[in-house]
């Protein structure tokens, strides 16, 4: 595939008079890690909701792998290979780490395991779930209750759940939020490794992580994309420096 994997054109969303997504257009190429940064309230989370399909847009279009998915719901987008890392709140604490991942595999496969006898079905589900856990280095925690994981491990499990849905493109919404220094180093290394096989849209406040990981960065301010470019291009962009990084840094 030579075109963009994700093609966002003139996307809009308003809450009353507030234009939270204001004519946003950008493309994510296959294999790219595209970060979206912006100050608090810039509209990053709203944009991720629009991309994942959990929030309908007022206008514009979203194409995935060449297909117009603007009106496809969240389940349909997951089925096509576009998944948001599920929030910690959606992790089922009372179930094991493996069971949490296996449920995501089952959601992806729908009825495709129905021809297996139940024991074989369980093995197939668990093998796929274990592969996702190994990618995020949680395979040694598989039998632990999800509720007993540390905060950083729960963020790893969120990513495993998105992987277990069979996603080609991962939407990661602030994976480093609330993590300590060591946890965040583990997650950054994990994302660097995931980049080799997956296209990623990353929303993140940690600029060191963004500049280390991103192939390109888009900067959102008051719902408008004011710049898209490499980390270096964005870092020296005059409008970005004043609007986002702060006057003192621009001086
Ligand atoms: N459902 C809603 N109804 C009304 N206003 C909303 C709604 N959701 C978000 N907003 C407003 O839209 C703006 C953008 O919010 P959003 O959460 O998308 O920003 P953000 O860039 O993700 O912020 P942060 O970095 O703080 O998470 C904010 O002013 C917010 O108050």
Automatic annotation (TrEMBL):
- ABC transporter domain residues are 6-247
GO terms (molecular function) for this protein are:
ATP binding; ATP hydrolysis activity
Q: Which GO terms describe its cellular component?
A: plasma membrane
Q: Mind telling me which InterPro entries this protein's record contains?
A: AAA+_ATPase, ABC_AA/LPS_Transport, ABC_transporter-like_ATP-bd, BCA_ABC_TP_C, P-loop_NTPase
The UniProt entry, under Pfam families, shows:
ABC_tran, BCA_ABC_TP_C
Which SUPFAM superfamilies has this protein been placed in? P-loop containing nucleoside triphosphate hydrolases
Keyword field contains ATP-binding = yes
Q: Which UniProt keywords apply?
A: ATP-binding, Nucleotide-binding, Transport
Name-wise, this protein is ABC transporter
Q: Source species, please?
A: Aurantimonas manganoxydans (strain ATCC BAA-1229 / DSM 21871 / SI85-9A1)
């Amino acid at each position: 595939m030579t075109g963009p994997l994700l093609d966002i054109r003139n996307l809009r969303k308003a809450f009353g008079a507030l234009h939270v997504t204001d004519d946003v257009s950008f493309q994510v190429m296959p294999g790219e890690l595209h970060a979206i940064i912006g100050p608090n309230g810039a509209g990053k989370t709203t944009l991720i909701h629009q991309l994942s399909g959990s929030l309908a847009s007022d206008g514009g279009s979203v194409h995935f792998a060449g297909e117009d998915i603007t009106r496809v719901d969240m389940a349909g987008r997951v089925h096509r290979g576009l998944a948001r890392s599920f929030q910690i709140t959606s992790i089922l604490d009372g179930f094991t780490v493996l069971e949490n991942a296996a449920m995501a595999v089952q959601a992806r496969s729908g009825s495709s395991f129905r021809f297996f006898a139940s024991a074989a079905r369980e093995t197939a589900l668990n093998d796929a779930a274990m592969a996702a856990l190994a990618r995020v280095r949680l395979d040694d925690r598989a039998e632990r209750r999800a509720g007993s994981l540390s905060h950083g491990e729960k963020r790893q499990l969120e990513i495993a759940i998105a992987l277990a849905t069979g996603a080609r493109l991962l939407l990661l919404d602030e994976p480093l939020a609330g993590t300590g220094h060591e946890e965040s180093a583990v997650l950054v290394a994990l994302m660097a490794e995931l980049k080799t096989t997956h296209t990623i849209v990353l929303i993140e406040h940690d600029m060191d992580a963004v500049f280390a990981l991103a192939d390109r960065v888009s900067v959102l301010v008051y719902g408008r994309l004011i710049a898209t470019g490499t980390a270096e291009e964005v870092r020296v962009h005059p409008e970005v420096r004043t609007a986002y990084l702060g006057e003192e840094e621009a001086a």
